[in-house]
Specification:
With 98 residues, the chain is of the alpha+beta class. The protein has two helices and four strands. It has a domain of 60 residues: Double Stranded RNA Binding Domain (2-Layer Sandwich), CATH 3.30.160.250. The protein has a four-stranded antiparallel beta sheet, with helices on one face.
Length: 98
């Protein structure tokens, strides 16, 4: 599988830190105390999650462009449109990225 980039949303926590949501990858979430930590943790979470999907023979969802509309369940959240968006690289050809 070639290198791919999946978008994520950084959800600012009410008491600090950030949650990470991958709109196209159901169930893949992460977090971090800072935006940088959240972005780093997101990379590991995505690689692990997609690796498990592959191992189970499940379909891997296609990544969406950074500016693609949010899925309905997130678009309903008024604040989600303002959350920072990042692209996270992952290459599963040799296992999860380190």
């Amino acid at each position: 599988m070639p290198l791919r980039h999946d978008r994520n949303l950084l959800e600012p926590g009410r008491k600090g830190g950030y949650g990470v949501i991958f709109p196209e990858v159901d169930g893949c979430v992460s977090a971090g105390d800072t935006a940088d930590a959240a972005a780093s943790n997101a990379r590991e979470a995505l690689a692990s999650h997609l690796g498990l999907l592959l191992a189970d023979g499940d379909l891997i969802p296609d990544p969406a462009p950074l500016d693609a509309p949010l899925p309905d369940h997130l678009a309903k959240l008024r604040t989600a449109a303002r959350w920072p968006r990042l692209l996270v690289p992952v290459d599963l050809s040799g296992g999860p990225m380190q």
